[in-house]
């Protein structure tokens, strides 16, 4: 497991072979935000950090295994959604 600060600190495990934004949101019930990253990772959180820096959408380029028409972040890039 890496140790870098995360936009959303709670990682839902195990990683999901059917990950997609809605699946991740359903795993993050009770949290204000959910996010998909690196294809199969799902993160949750209650607030966005003050250091958050938005990146171009093009940097999130990994197709979701649960729905290849959707994007599940990228390498060290998270697609964040409000729940």
TrEMBL record:
Residues 1-83 form the WSC domain. It is found in: Membrane. One of its GO terms (cellular component) is plasma membrane. It is a single-pass membrane protein. The keyword Signal applies. The keyword Membrane applies. The lineage of its organism: Eukaryota, Metazoa, Spiralia, Lophotrochozoa, Mollusca. This is WSC domain-containing protein. Keywords: Glycoprotein, Membrane, Signal, Transmembrane, Transmembrane helix. Pfam families: WSC.
């Amino acid at each position: 497991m890496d140790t870098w600060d995360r936009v959303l600190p709670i990682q839902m495990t195990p990683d999901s072979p059917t990950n997609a934004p809605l699946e991740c949101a359903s795993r993050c019930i009770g949290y204000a935000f959910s996010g998909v990253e690196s294809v199969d990772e799902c993160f949750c959180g209650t607030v966005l950090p003050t250091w958050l820096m938005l990146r171009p959408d093009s940097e999130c380029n990994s197709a979701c295994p649960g729905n290849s028409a959707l994007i599940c972040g990228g390498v060290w890039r998270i697609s964040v959604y409000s729940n």
